[in-house]
Design goal:
The structure is a homodimer.
Chain A (H helix, E strand, L loop, with lengths): L25 E2 L11 H4 L2 H7 L9 H11 L8 E4 L2 H10 L4 E5 L3 H10 L4 E4 L8 H8 L4 E5 L11 H13 L3 E5 L14 H4 L5 E6 L12 E4 L3 H9 L8 H10 L3 H22 L5 E4 L6 E6 L4 H10 L2 E2 L1 E2 L10 E5 L3 H18 L1
Parallel strand pairs in A: 1-11, 3-4, 3-5, 5-6, 6-7
Antiparallel strand pairs in A: 2-8, 7-8, 9-10, 10-13, 12-13
Chain lengths: 361, 361
């Protein structure tokens, strides 16, 4: 297995084709809550401005207290590890595995980390309709020391069926294998109790990754965290962290947005409405072969008689950035991913798609 | 050599004895520019608030451009590596050494990092008057693959004599050994051209660490950087970094404070004045045996007929936090370190010291 860092392509590069050319792109390529930064944080940013002249608390005691309160479910401060973005937590947790089983297609950072740290990587593909293949996952776990899975999964937005996942958890718990579940998008899911946080207290094998990036619309603040009842594992990962890894603005965000129930509720209500509207409209285009059911704030689309490249370039020429999916393992350039944004932005994209259809179909 | 993380004690823990007990301590234990956060940053914080809904540029192109402009001296973007605080850069650079020679007493993170990454650590002590022992450093370099040294050094504030250091640089350059110079406090030095940045272009062995923490008074923003003309070394370290390691507020700071010549000049002028005032006053106390010459914004003091513990507790009871030095390798509890702060704060400390003298001497 090559140890080289593979070619990375992420959503959200509004710089190369946008800002550096003086163009303000509408970014459908990164899946950020379209309500934007919570007002509760904005109003308290001056608090952070006072705090930055001091070092943050080396133990981040207040931050962990607020997270514990938010998570409930018997989570204690000692079950939480804080990261400079989910990226740091992904790096630490997956980096601790020798033979991870990674469910794909999914976020490319899982594979990037595993390539630099693991001895062997096993890839377990989703079914053709992008549902999880639970049997295949379980079969693979025999030769792996950990599972890496997202809930909901990026790029398609599917969620884990808890009933079907039970056997996998039981097997991993009994055989001391880790289950790393990336729940970066879980707060967008409309079904109740879709997160595995509640199961953490009962299963030490579970390690849940969360972040402020997507739901709280703050990728720039760089804050993510991991949760597990395996105290020894949390301690092992923490020992390798640099001191003061969380900045004061992220600390202020932790103290404000988690209690912002108005923002949290509004986000869900508005997203569900827009997701429904957007999917109904998108389904009408001739050049879209399939739109997969999503519980996130984004859609994976399969194109027909056109390519991701063609659509990407057309959209870019109209000031819109979409996400090509050719660098997701198992996908190719006939797939694209779109964020669900505000009605105004979604309509803007729909209009561009209509023009594309006129020209190309 | 034990691989355990040793007991850490840093300045700036205003939480345990202060905030969590509802007490606002005056913090002389961490050495932060007493002018506080530059106005140029405060005025642009709303720019950062807009930016945090987007991922930072994965390549941090604008940030590196502004640093390059600030550093001058033939530094190019490719010579710069950005860190989540100097802590990340220290961790990466020292982590790359197998047998570092660490000049002590100095910042404890050098040793902490080396303990978790190195095969062997060689400690090279400062002279009794806390000047550098250049001969001893050179002798030690034969069996080491890198030198770790601070300029100015923390906790005493002494600076490297460039002339005396020439032979060490020449030896390391010829023998492919690294010289890691932590210049976190160098902008406070009144002598011109005390930094080794200007020598970077000519000597690939040099790796300079800088930060916004001290001079720009922003420990909470978490930003540090490394500079070296050894492109391969910079690339090697960069490859192990997580993506988006610098937050949007730090990016905004980079774009604003480096050009804030008013803040930069005021900081120097005011510090020199206060440093002189404070040292003259401090020298008058009977319980202070020695005050060492400092080019930083802090002083190392040797106590007599009292201990760090005694003075620490007395000051704490008056709302002042000072830095005990017992956990600096080579020092003991008869040393303390004090930040140079505003005239008002310095006078407040001097008054507490007068009371201490009355009670104890």
């Amino acid at each position: 297995m090559s140890k080289e860092k593979s070619f990375i392509e992420h959503g959200g590069d509004i710089y190369t084709e946008g800002k550096f050319k003086g163009i303000n792109l509408v970014d459908f390529s990164s899946n950020i809550n379209f309500l934007g930064v919570p007002k509760s944080f904005k109003e308290n940013v001056y608090k952070a401005l006072e705090d930055i002249t001091c070092y943050p608390d080396l133990k981040y005691r207040e931050a962990k207290f607020h997270l514990k309160e938010y998570l409930g479910a018997e989570i204690k401060e000692e079950n939480i590890i804080l990261g400079n973005g989910a990226a740091e937590i992904i790096n630490l947790a997956i980096g601790a595995l020798k033979r991870p089983c990674i469910v794909v297609p999914s976020f490319s950072e899982y594979e990037t980390t595993a390539r630099s740290c693991s001895e062997e990587i096993v890839f377990c593909s989703l079914n053709e309709d992008f549902t999880y293949n639970y049997k295949s996952i379980l079969d693979n776990m025999e030769r792996c020391d950990g599972l890496v899975i997202a809930n909901p999964n990026n790029p398609n937005g599917g969620v884990i069926d808890k009933k079907c996942f039970e056997e996998i958890i039981a097997y991993c718990e009994a055989n001391k294998k880790k289950i790393i579940i990336d729940e970066a998008f879980v707060e967008f899911v409309s079904r109740d109790n879709q997160s595995f946080i509640d199961s953490c207290a009962n299963f030490k094998c579970l390690f849940i990754i969360r972040a402020f990036t997507k739901f709280f619309a703050m990728p720039g603040i760089r804050f993510g965290y991991g949760v597990s009842s395996d105290k020894a594992f949390i301690e092992k990962l923490s020992k390798t962290q640099i001191p003061w890894n969380i900045n004061s603005f992220a600390e202020t965000a932790i103290k404000t947005v988690l209690k912002d129930t108005e923002y949290i509720n509004n986000s869900k209500v508005l997203l569900y409405k827009e997701r429904e509207y957007f999917s109904q409209k998108l389904k009408g285009f001739k050049f879209i072969d399939k739109l997969y059911e999503s519980h996130g704030n984004f859609f994976l689309l399969k194109l027909k008689e056109t390519s991701g490249e063609e659509l990407f370039n057309f959209c870019l020429s109209k000031g819109i950035l979409i996400r090509r999916c050719r660098n997701f393992r198992g996908l190719n350039d006939s797939f694209i991913r779109l964020a669900v944004k505000s009605r105004e932005d979604n309509n803007r994209l729909l209009e561009v798609f209509m023009n594309f259809e006129k020209v190309n179909c």
